[in-house]
Amino acid sequence: MNTVYSSIKGLGFYVPDNIVTNDDLTQYMDTSDAWIQERTGIKQRRYFTYGKDTNASMGAAASRMALDRAGLEPSAVDLIVYATITPDYYFPGSAFLMQRELGLEGIGVIDIRNQCSGFVYALSIADQFIKTGMYKTVLVVGSEIQSSFLNKSNEGRGVAVIFGDGAGAAVLQATTDPEHRILSTHLHADGRYAEDLYVRDPGSSREGQWISEATLADGQYNVTMNGNTVFKHAVVRFMEVINESLTANGYQPEDLSLLVPHQANIRISGYVQQQMNLPDEKVFNNIQQYGNTTAASIPIALTEAFEQGRIKPGDLVCLAAFGSGFTWASALIKW
Ligand code: COA
């Protein structure tokens, strides 16, 4: 019997129309285009339009594009794995809402909450389900509406300038071709740093009701980040997990055709690129246009890289992520 692997058959993304430049942010907070570009590389990001975009509708738009490019009808999908930390409802997750929107009632859905590594975790789960033979076609989605979680005043400016909204999707299918497939995925986490990048409320372990006057007054329903700690861990873990994927498959950094890192901060990607001695054409960045879109950043970047002809059959592509949790993860793909 032939071994079953999974391969990426189609990619898609959706970003809201509303472009928010660095200059636009100066209306709400004391910041500047120069500060934001120098510290993060970001020039602009997208914010969702209330009444038009939802987390699930953005995921559905990205999924339709990915399915279309794979030449598949939505009915071909056996399972949805959906990564987000900004769901439309506290529960059920946005996977359910997107399933409904795509008319796929009845198939299984899994919601993943693994922050900036969410898409790679979701991809890994899809890959395992396909390799065991349980499913043939799995839709993997990352979608985020973060603009409504940010404190866009001076108090929150160190965090608010980084994040944006958007969605990306990949269609995975079973294949027996060993030359074009996901080679391996690698998942890690370290909960000791949970509070270095988190949204505390609403949470269940509170005195009395989980949303109270006290929690609202505390303002801990916005993102809190210890930026320096995140930065220091990110640069180390990104390199570790990229090297782990290469070593596991007998490759060296110079064998990579393209690294698609989670778009956390251009300085983090730049440091990793320099340490790994990779030329500019081997590292994809689009954080300039979209900011950090958490679970959506890798599938958006991967889709744009593909559209721009930066990925060709036979290429060795590495996806790598780091984020809140802390989590870090990679996937090595022979395209
Ligand atoms: N505009 C202008 N000034 C700002 C600002 C903003 N948006 N945000 C913070 N500042 C100010 C600070 O108040 C501080 O002023 P002070 O020196 O007078 O106290 C100064 O800029 C430096 O702040 P600091 O937080 O030390 O800056 P930094 O160089 O560490 O950059 C980050 C901040 C957030 C850009 C940086 O820590 C970072 O990128 N961390 C990683 C974040 C990340 O990737 N998160 C996602 C992971 S998935």
CATH homologous superfamily (4th level) name of the largest domain: Thiolase/Chalcone synthase
Shape: globular
Q: In what range is the share of β-strand residues? A: 15-25%
Number of DSSP strand runs: 13
Rg of Cα set: 19 Å
Range of helix content: 25-40%
**CATH architecture label name of the largest domain:** 3-Layer(aba) Sandwich
| SSE string, helices as H and strands as E | EEHHEHEHEHEHEEEHEHEHHHEE
Helix count equals: 11
User: What is the fold-level CATH name, i.e. the topology of the largest domain?
Assistant: Peroxisomal Thiolase, Chain A, domain 1
User: What is the CATH class name of the largest domain?
Assistant: Alpha Beta
Major sheet attributes = 5 strands, mixed
Can you give the mean pLDDT? 97
How many separate structural domains?
2
- Structural class call reads alpha/beta
Task: Describe this structure as you would to a colleague.
The structure is a single chain. This protein has two domains: 5-178, Peroxisomal Thiolase, Chain A, domain 1; 182-334, Thiolase/Chalcone synthase (Peroxisomal Thiolase, Chain A, domain 1, 3-Layer(aba) Sandwich), CATH 3.40.47.10. It has helices at 22-25, 33-40, 55-70, 94-101, 118-131, 157-160, 213-218, 227-248, 266-275, 287-290, 297-307; strands at 5-14, 19-21, 44-46, 79-83, 108-112, 137-144, 166-175, 181-189, 197-198, 224-225, 258-261, 316-323, 327-334. The protein has eleven helices and 13 strands. The longest helix is centred in the last third of the chain and has 22 residues, at 227-248. It has a five-stranded mixed sheet, sandwiched between helices. A four-stranded mixed sheet has the order 8-13-12-11, with helices on both faces. Strands 2-3 form a two-stranded antiparallel ribbon. Helix content is 32%, strand content 23%. The chain starts with a strand and ends with a strand. The protein is of the alpha/beta class. The structure holds coenzyme A (COA). Residues 31, 35, 39-40, 116, 157-158, 161-162, 227-228, 230-231, 234, 264-265, 268, 292, 323 line the site of coenzyme A (COA).
